[in-house]
Amino acid sequence: MDILAWQNEPSVQRALASLADIRPVIETVVAIQQVPAPTFDEQERSALVKERFTTLKLGDIHSDALGNVYGRRRGRGPGRAVLVSAHTDTVFPRETDLSIRYEGERIYGPSIGDNSTGVAGLLHLAQTLQHFDISHRDDIWFVANVCEEGLGDLRGMRAAVEHLRSQLNQVIVLEGCDFGTIHHQAIAVRRYRILVRGSGGHSWGNFGVTSAVHVLVQLAARLTEISVPGLPRTTYNIGVIEGGTSVNTIAEQASLLLDMRSVDLAALTQLVARVDTVIATFTLSQRDVQIMVEQVGARPAGAIGRDHGLVRAATAAYQAVGASINYQQSSTDANIPLSMGIPAVCVGLTDGGNAHRSDEYIVPANLGRGMQALLLLTLAAAEL
Known about the structure:
By secondary structure, the protein is α+β, with helices and mostly antiparallel strands. The protein has 2 domains: about 5-185 and about 300-380, 3-Layer(aba) Sandwich (Aminopeptidase), CATH 3.40.630.10; about 190-300, Alpha-Beta Plaits. Helix content is about 35%, strand content about 30%. The protein has helices spanning about 5, 10-20, 25-35, 45-55, 110-130, 155-165, 210-225, 265-285, 310-320, 335-340, 365-380; strands at about 60-65, 70-75, 80-85, 100-105, 105-110, 140-145, 170-180, 180-185, 190-195, 200, 235-245, 250, 255-260, 290-300, 300-305, 325-330, 345-350, 350-355, 360-365. The strands form 4 sheets. Strands 1, 2, 3, 6, 7, 8, 15, 16 and 17 form a 9-stranded mixed β-sheet that branches. The protein has a 4-stranded antiparallel β-sheet with strand order 4-5-19-18, with no helix packed on it. α2 (about 10-20) packs antiparallel against α11 (about 365-380), α3 crosses α5 and α9 packs antiparallel against α11 (about 365-380).
């Protein structure tokens, strides 16, 4: 059944009308945002989701070893399934001040867009389908997954897809922001931790002893001199540097985290090889220190075209609510199913900005339309 046909279904019409009222969704967004959920420490937020799944009377509610939370709504068909997911983790440490601030059309708060709004969308999608008793062919698995951000390396989604792989027909990944955006091409990513170790000492008494910090920043400077192509788009970033003991101590240890990514796997492979060469050459010039490299992240690439049925369904769903469409390449939980040949898209529910900053915000004006588009897309995907 296509989007237009779903719009003409009486139960779907009632459901779409109900989603125009965004107040209950915003209430859920804030409730989720107030629960800390740093990557690897999402238990409290996962427990909240599991409680909501139970209240909604979804079937087969359970958690896996990583902390992903699952709930199923049965379809009328022969056992194929759509997975709809939203990641529960955030980039913010547990001790972060999670205070909410309302200013004009914006709601501010750490993780409010990424991904408290996405998780709220997941819950209200399930609630809407249950309340209006909407029939669909394929089963729909609702999954709140852990470990999407940073060094989580998409391991929550990896586990979810492996767990449900024999059933999966389509995957829809939810992010809070980017209303009207369809992510259907997955960017390949590699991440390194580079560690330097030396003997250290006192800054005065042992002056001349090689400092791990000095060596690391020299290596970092060499890495930033690497040139990358503009097409295919390829990037790198040193996101974290750590090390040392005090201002008057020659550092025994220092490390950095390097992110490398490209829309083209061959271009990423070439960048990684150049980084490896720079590190190896630099290491040969050093004495009295050890330089160690560990790969700490590897996000796979994959894609489906704009002519794929799932992308067409996402496009039609957004168009049905009057959104302007933006097709994007990105690194999201959709990387995992796409890399396995399972059709997947990542879609946004409303507008916002300053992601991964303490002054992150959403503009919920389009949230109702985002939820309406999500409902139409999910129902269409369940019939593909």
